[in-house]
Amino acid sequence: MATQKPMEWIASLMSLFDKQLPWRTGPQSSITRINEEQLKSCFVKISENKFHTVLTNLSKILSHTNDQFSALLQTSKGCPPDIIKTFQDSIVSTLDAIERVLSSQEDNKNFRPTVISTEIDMTMMKMLLREVCSYLSPDTHPDFAPPQVRTLAIKTLFGFSTNYFNIIFMRIAGSLQELSIGVTEPSPNKEEGADLCDIELMTYLDVDLARMIKLLNEINSKFKMLKKQAHVLIITSIEKVLWNWMDAYPHEFAEIQKSPNEELSKCCEQLFDLLDGFVSDAKKFRATIWPLQMILLILSPKVLEEIVNANSGAPCSPRHDKKRSYIDAVKKFIGPHNSSDKPQTQAAVITCVKLCKASTYINNLDSNNVVFTLVQSVINELKAQLFTPHKPFSRGANYLNQDMDLMIECFVSGFRIKPHNNEALKVCLNQNSPLIYHFVLISSLYKIVTQSRLPWWPQIDIVYPRAQELRTMFIETLNKVTSGCISHTTEKIIRSLTLKPKDSLRFKEQEVPSIKTILLLMVRLIRADPMLMLNNQGKLGHEIQSSTLELINGLVSLVYLPAAPDISQEAMEALLILHHPDKIRMWNPEAPINTFWDVNSQVLFAISQKLIQHQIENYTDILKWLRQILICKNQFLTNHKDYANVGCHLPICKQAHIKLEIVSYMYLWSIDIEGIIFFFFFTFPPPPPPGKLSHPPPTHPPQIALFTNLNPQSQHRILSHPHS
Fold first, then answer.
1. What sign does the dihedral 581-585-586-587 (CA atoms) show?
2. pLDDT tens-digit profile of 546-602?
3. Phi and psi for 715 in degrees, rounded to 5?
4. CA of 180: how far to CAs of 212, 213, 330, 659, in Å?
5. Which helix (H) or strand (E) holds 520?
6. Cα-flanking dihedrals φ and ψ of residue 180, to 5°?
7. Cβ proximity of 272 and 307 under 8 Å
8. What are the pLDDT digits (tens) for 393-403?
9. Theoretical Cys-Cys bridge with 411: which of 243, 287, 444, 460, CB 3.0 to 4.6 Å?
């Protein structure tokens, strides 16, 4: 049927997918989830040849589901939570299918976006865009609160723009027209504020250089006529678009620095002049406008070079006088002697952070680039503004998150500009520094580790020598969380960020990065790169083993932390990463086997003890995780079969083995299938790979099937245990 009647076959698959949505059938089972995944895989495969057909049918399903839910809300006084959940799951499932189809075409080299040849096709694509955009606004769908819906909508919109950018562009251009001063009557069937929401669409799109120029030209042509309420939104949105473009297409940005694009430079100069006129009328918006103006100058390399070189006596065109005055103003207000003018200083700080960040996208081998010259003229003053422990940078309570993001950007940029001379690292590592600096440090390191690297960015291993200080910070933070104490630094940062006495608004404790938040980030950092806390270069063997044991025992204590399930889950993942055979060798390179037996046995003993005492609620997840730990353990010993027994006769090894035996038999009688699986895994371990070992390593318990086959000592231990 698929080859003889492809359209009928596609319709049949779509009908099956629609009928299995949760809003029709109720909550999904494991079987329906498997069927759903198979159908989505089919959609992706079919879309290689019938892309537009698949997308159109999925759009109809999404629209119909949304209509049914809207009708239900209108006809009923109250919708039960379980019904809302089924519609949420249906929306998520359909959006996920659409997103997969859209994103799959990026890897399809033979794919060419389908030409929308009929008015019906255009209507369908606009309908899909309308449905997807509706999930981006929390006011449009207040019942679709889960972030997963919005996240999927953003990913879907990105994929849609890759294939049908012009449709979204026309929608944005239409909204710009609606927001013009000359337009007095809004378009029919358009909700209030919809035009402003449409402006933000540009921040979610797949924008390359050609599309960027197209957007800039459209904005430049309408900027003067826009209503005041749209100006700030346009400015913030276009800045986000520029950063998204630099992240997605860094090679285009790098090429512009070598060979400037005349059309782009013209657009940027024009927008700079428009913004300069706007900031003259509204100085309070300098913190918003100045950063964008800096990026626009960087995208006009010839203009910026002329301005910077003018300080050395080189000629400068009179038409660049305003741009030169702008650069001078930024340099002036970033200095320490102009701190009395806070709004101007804050605007200069934000602008210089963006300047430093942009400079990291330029190959450092291009040392003659004037952007680097400009960075060197402000970077020391910038760090002094942001990383002074006794006076943390703050724009007030309402900007706390933005200020922390700003400090993170500055830290990361400083690391990439001067990796071996990072004063901010010393400030943030200081245990006496305010809590906000610890948050900035861990967040910055995590970003450095996880963000896709450009070839000239330095490696994170430069920070490895500071592992001892990071471990100390981790242990101290862990102790504060587990003991329930609030650090005095939290109170200190609250006091330092308190507004003026005449303003009664103060920071709430939950608005400050809490100890728990920092601990969660630390555990994620360990998971992302364990060597940041495992490195012990230059230490003796027993010191290395002691520090590793302290780190891993700290993570183990978080596994059964009842008040923080998110931290517990991350700790389990981090421990699993640390138990990878390659990472185990780094526990103590001087004596890896001995250290492994000691540390791993303590891990197994502690977890087993908690399971035996029923002190872990999510025991099913723990058993699954424990099984993975044992698999890693066996793999490591298999890799070192010739001396796997070295160090296995420690008392803790025997105690851990006994505890594991008790756990396996206790949970054999569990109603949860995972307990039974763990029992059989423990008592019937998988055989070693052929040619690796002639017999199982001594980590495995005896090959037993029934309790009666145990030796008398083991039987006595099981029967005499109070929890058996």
1. positive
2. 999 999 999 999 998 877 889 999 999 999 999 999 999 999 999 999 999 999 999
3. -60, -40
4. 21, 21, 31, 73
5. helix 515-528
6. -75, 155
7. no
8. 888 888 889 99
9. 444
